[in-house]
Structures are given as structure tokens and as C-alpha cells.
Amino acid sequence: MKNSMTRSVLLGCCTMFVIITSPLAAQGGRQRVTKGSQTRGGAGAGVVCSYLTEDEVKPVLGSELQPTFSTAGHCTWAAKSGGKQIVLITMRTAGEAAEHAFDYALANPIKGADKGVVQSGFGDKSFAMMLDRGVQIDVLKNKKMMQVQYLTGAHGTAADLEKLKPIATKAIAAY
Q1: No. of helices (H) and no. of strands (E), the chain
Q2: CA dist 151 → 85, 129, 135 (Å)
Q3: Residue 95 in 3-state DSSP?
Q4: What confidence score (pLDDT) does residue 46 get?
Q5: Cα separation of 89 and 74, whole Å?
């Protein structure tokens, strides 16, 4: 799929697959979050969507945003002009399983991504990864895992990572 990414994470005896699909590609089963509910903690925003506001993502995506879509543990903001997205993903695993998933993700980059680089200042442990279509910060905080992505449609750059860091800081603080 063009606007999707698949990550396989080994968890002891079984494998967990996390598939992230762009809301532009397929919106089936997603909850539409209306503009008025996109404030931190707003009704109908969903838990993950409440970690950031439109005003917090606009400096990176631009002033015109498409409606936000979410599923359990996943929220996407997209530029109205297309192409750029901010994606938050919270993993359902917690505790030791989340720690193993984090370590595995750091050691085994997804296809088309550069090896992860350990970062400081985000949660208990974190790393950044340049993807074939943007950048991603993976964070382990209180034995829970979150990914914050800035998808541009092109291979990630250091400048893309710098744009993502303030957004990641806000989302992780709310996590």
C-alpha cells in the first residue's frame, strides 16, 4: 500500500503487527474528529487525539488542515494541501512487553528506514528514525510505548526531525 507502513514486533512467543494507514488512503472504521473537538481533552477527540491541538500541529503542517481521523491508539492530522501528516500511535502493549518491543524496534529498523538514533529528553528512553517518507520518534514512558511521526512523502531529514521534536515533546508530556 502506498501510504502505509507495517512494523512487526517480536514479543516472546508471538509476533504483533502494527499497520499504519493514511486516512487519505482509507477511512473505513475511523472516527472523524470535528474541528470543534480538537482541543486537549475535548469531547469526541479520543484519547490519543487529545495529546495535541490543531494549533500545536499547524506550525509544521500549515494553517489549513484536513479533518482529523482516529482509531483506538492512533490519531492523524494532515495538511489540506496533502502530503504532510503528523501521526501519533500508542501501542497497546505495556510493561515488560513494551520494553521488549521498544528494544526490538530500535535494533530492527522498518524497511526503508535508517537505523534508529538514541535521543534524550523524551520519556524514559527514546530514539529517532529517518523513514523513507518522513521521520519518527519512538518513546518508552512509564513502560508504555508511543510513536510520533512527521510524514512528508520524502526520505526524512535532520530538518524534518527538528520540526517534529517540539510536537513530540508536547504529545509525550500529555501521554
Answers
A1: 3, 10
A2: 5, 12, 6
A3: coil
A4: 65
A5: 4
Calpha distance 55→29 (Å, rounded): 26
Give the Cα separation of 2 and 65 in Å (integer).
21
Q: 111-124: string of b/e by CB count within 10 Å (b at 16+)? A: eebeebeebeebbe
Asked whether the beta carbons of 77 and 61 are under 8 A apart, the reply is yes
The predicted model scores a pTM of 0.73
User: Percent of the chain scored above 70 by pLDDT?
Assistant: 74
The partner residues of 32 in beta bridges, in order of sequence, read 69
Q: Which helix (H) or strand (E) holds 71?
A: strand 68-71
Residue 37 has which C-alpha cell? 473537538
43-73: per-residue pLDDT in tens? 234 688 889 999 999 999 988 898 887 887 8
Instruction: Please give the Cα distance from 19 to 7 (Å, whole number).
Output: 7
